[in-house]
Amino acid sequence: MEHDRGGDHAPPFQANDDATPDTEQRTLGIRLVNQGKLEHAIPCLERAVRQGAGDYVSQMNLSLAYLNVGRLAEAISLLMESLQQSPHDADISILLGKALLTSDQPQEAIAILAPAALAHPHRFHLHYYLGLAHARRDHSSQAIAAWRKAIRIRPDHQELKRWLKDNPREAPQAPGPQTRLTIARYH
């Protein structure tokens, strides 16, 4: 099942309101993610998943919360499970690639992002993060190629547009302040 939101900073995944204890925890957890109260959201979403509300929305919100509070191993593990269940889901690939990049695993990020970028050529963040992963591996030409695809999708992305203009033939060795390229809070 494909979930294609495609926004620059997509909001956390939304929930339906149901009346069972697991869905109450799920709804509360998602509400807390939406409010940015991630440390409080995590236990609610973990309980919801344990109690049976381990659906796509719960798992993606829990993964997002783990990622944004720095619990990278847990985010990666949950996203790997989710990707096994939905191998063609671009949103899972984006979050997993971002988590792998954040945990300094660029080669693993490339392995996830490259096939997803081919399957979903109009998804900005797949190309953007693929470029970052290639840059971290010193693959300048692949990084630039990915970022050029990203800028064709989102020509108004100022930091990427500025960086490509200033550095048309070389990619940074490692993304950071010197590149002005950042990993977005939300995919």
Low-confidence residue ranges? 1-11, 173-181
- The average pLDDT score comes to 83
Q: Beta-strand percentage? A: under 5%
Structural class: mainly alpha
Number of strands: 0
Bulk shape: elongated
First-residue to last-residue Cα separation: 18 Å
* Assigned CATH architecture of the domain at 104-187: Alpha Horseshoe
Over all CA atoms, what is the radius of gyration? 17 Å
Short précis:
The chain is mostly helical.
Describe the structure in your own words.
This protein is an all-alpha fold and 187 residues long. It contains nine helices and no strands. The longest helix is centred in the N-terminal third of the chain and has 14 residues, at 21-34.
Q: Key terms for this structure?
A:
187 residues, mainly alpha, Serine Threonine Protein Phosphatase 5, Tetratricopeptide repeat, elongated, disordered N terminus
